[in-house]
Amino acid sequence: MQFYIINLLKKFLFIIPAFLIVSCGIWGDFTTYFNLYYNTSDIFSQAEDAIKSQKTDLFSNEEVTVPGSATQLLNKVIEKASQILQFHSQSVYVDNALLMLGKSFFYQKNYLKAIREFQELVATRPNSNLILEAKLWIGKTDMKLKNYDDALSMLETVRKQGVEEGKDEIVIDAYIEEIKYKLTQQDYSGAISLSKELLNISKNDEINAEVVYEMGKLYNLLNDPQNAILAFQQVFDYSPSYDIEFDARLELGKAYRDAGQPEKALNIFNDMSTRKNYSEFYDQIDLELGTTQVELKNYKEAYNYFKAVDTGYTNSQSSGIAKYKLGELYQYYFFNFDSASYYYSKSVTSRLPEEFILSANDKIQKFRKYKTLTDNISQNYKKLEYVENPEIFVKDSIAFYSDTLKNETSTNTETNVSRENMRGRFNDRRFSEMSKTETQAANTVTAQKTGKGIPPIRPNISADSIKSLLVQNLFELGNLFFTEFNLPDSAYYYYSKVLNDYPDSKYQARTMYALGSYYLTINENTKADSLFNIIYDNYKNENIVNAAANKLNKPLIDLNYDPAISLYDSAEKRLTKKKYNESLKEFYNIYKSYPQSSVAPKALYATGWILENQLDMPDSAALFYDTLTAKYPKTLYAVKISKKINFYNEEKARIKKAYEDSLLLVKKARLDSLRADSLRAIKSISPGKVSSDSAKTQKPDSLQSLNKNNTQTPILPGKEERPKGIDTSQQSRKTLDSLKANRNRLIK
What gap in Å lies between CA 52 and CA 48, rounded to an integer? Predict the structure, then answer.
């Protein structure tokens, strides 16, 4: 009995600690849940709801925008979940904490930290019921890290396991993630196949409706409107949300229109426009009604719809699209380019979707070019008229300044009348704003009447220059109509004008090619080939000739062909045969006939070389070398000869200067000798002595009177008459004759 009691006490003592241990664990989980985990889970739910509220398409790959409030909540989740892992690592909430922590890092785009948390959950909690969800998020995170192979493998595993375990939400999420990947690879057919698999598995009618809707959009990307129609119709077999229902009806109407059934599209849009529950979308519906009316060629009705959207929903995206559509109406159907340009310009300053912006800006640039070209053509026609008929310029100038004077007089009178009419109004508030408006209007009228118009300007360039500019403008305008505006008939008009009115312009070949291309578009191939043949036969030196050759399937022309090369080869052969005169002539003719040829400087160098080295005519060679360095200074041959020709020219200049210096010395010596001879002659023929006073006042080389009492005329060079009153001897005459001869030699 005692033994039994002792054993019973031992068992009781053993049970008590075990009970206490279990009780402590339960109590710890209990306190952790209420004190930490519950709070953390609640905060995370708030953050995730805020993130998911950012509406995106089911298959969209765009990064979800995390609101600022959600970011703060996520930071709190990270802090509290970390506390659970640090201080309550033995609680049952560790796997939940790891999953929340990983998701929080994922939403914050910190993918490396996120995947570590998910992997830790899988590795350390193998029996957790969160393993499959953790694997799903590992697949999602690998996608963000571009580890596509790992991601696809994991997602496939999740799908299979999820189907086995009946976890539909995780399976749907895994399918959607892989479909997104297919879209990034532009594998639209693969995305559709996965979507069909998803529909066979999913029991969520709302999700299925959205999946089918997205399939319809994918068929549109594949340019398959018939299957798109079937997909959009299938949306209504499920339980679409309000937004998906509206979008599906709208896209169904578009699909009918794209499939060439605008009447069915019009019926759908008209039906939608009568539903009051779609009132918030009337702008989109009217926009599609207008677009459908364009397809039905009811352009006035289309204009009314677009105008209503433009003016009735001014701050909406639909208003921006309506402006763009109005631009298209004016461009393609009303042919009013000024209005088209206006609406395109207005569209880019409104809420225009991104897919329209590039096209709108491109059209604006084209219409600016159109305006510039038409203005230039008008101005150049007027300039040409003024050059060819100056009297028209005078007439226009008189008319302009006469009208300006009349307008100024009229404006002054109207301003005075306007002031009289507005007297007394300023005391009445009702008329205050009106008076301001009238004043502004009057100012506008004044500005228009005085016109600040441009007076006629007399051209300062020739008629040929004006015609050249005019032809260029006409040709470019034709190209604009043909290639940019898709108006070939207008292009034909301008191409024909260039060919008929300016047949010798540099645009002749290009215009014929453009006109030939026009004939091809209207299936007049014979006329087109005729023009291409003219180009091929007559314009072999222009680039457009090979474009014509391609049209005719004829051999391409070597545009780099240089006839001077074969001539150079011929001259070189004559040189090797020592026919120097013949080769000299041929080399020089190459330079004269083909100065732009690549062998022209080489031929010029060969000409100088023959003269210098074979014909021993260095001075003549120097002339050609000079031409070579002047015409082709940067060529190899000019560089090669430059030192020699520079030395030659310097030496030639030195010799010339030395010759001129010696010539001056000879002339100076002769002049000194002449002066000395003159003095001796004067002394020899003088009858008396020159007085000392007179001699002192005489200059050494003057031929003045010898003394005051002597009345004879002085002897001057060039005078043939002899001094009067002097009986000169024969010796004196010889001396004078010698003096005359010396003077004549000096002059020469």
Answer: 6
pLDDT at position 46 is 93
Nearest to 295 by CA among 327, 340, 325, 252: 325
CATH class of 7-128: mainly alpha
Locate 552 and state its tokens.
Answer: 């005719």
Over residues 169-204, the pLDDT tens digits come to: 999 999 999 999 999 999 999 999 999 999 999 999
CA distance to 53, 235, 264, per residue, from 214 (Å): 19, 10, 22
Cβ-defined contacts of 105-110 (< 8 Å, 24+)? 105/78, 106/137, 106/140, 106/141, 106/144, 107/47, 107/48, 107/51, 107/64, 107/66, 107/70, 107/74, 108/66, 108/71, 108/74, 109/63, 109/144
The answer to whether the beta carbons of residues 369 and 480 sit under 8 Å apart is yes
User: Which DSSP state fits 484?
Assistant: I
Angle at CA of residue 705, ends 700 and 707, nearest 5°: 100
Spatial distance between the Cα atoms of 362 and 483, rounded to a whole number of angstroms? 13
Contact 323, 350 (CB under 8 A): yes
* DSSP of 350-367: S---HHHHHHHHHHHHHH
Q: Provide CB contacts within 8 A for 670, sequence distance 6+.
A: 742, 745, 746
- SS3 assignment for 157-175: HHHHHHHHHCCHHHHHHHH
Please state, as a whole number, how many other Cβ atoms lie within 10 Å of the Cβ of residue 140: 24
Q: How many other C-beta atoms lie within 10 A of the C-beta of residue 614?
A: 15
Amino acid at 273: S
Residue 304 pLDDT more than 90? yes
Tell me, rounded to whole angstroms, the distance of Cα 384 from its chain centroid.
Answer: 33
User: Whole-angstrom Cα distance, residue 557 to residue 702?
Assistant: 86
**Rounded Cα–Cα distance for residues 305 and 283 (Å):** 9
* Whole-Å CA distances, 238 to 215, 235, 272: 14, 6, 20
Given the structure tokens 């009132």, which residue do they identify?
Answer: 279
Cβ atoms 562, 598 nearer than 8 A = yes
Q: Are 636 and 599 in contact (CB under 8 A)?
A: no
Residue 24, pLDDT > 50, answer no
Mean pLDDT of the chain: 82
326 vs 332: CA distance, rounded Å: 10
Q: Which amino acid is at 222?
A: L
Q: Which residue in the block uniquely carries the two structure tokens 């109590």?
A: 27
Q: Which residues of 14-53 are buried (b: 16+ CB within 10 A; e: fewer)?
A: eeeeeeeeeeeeeeebeebbeebbeebbebbebbbebbee
SS (H, E, C) 172-225: HHHHHHHHHHHHHCCCHHHHHHHHHHHHHHCCCHHHHHHHHHHHHHHHHHCCCH
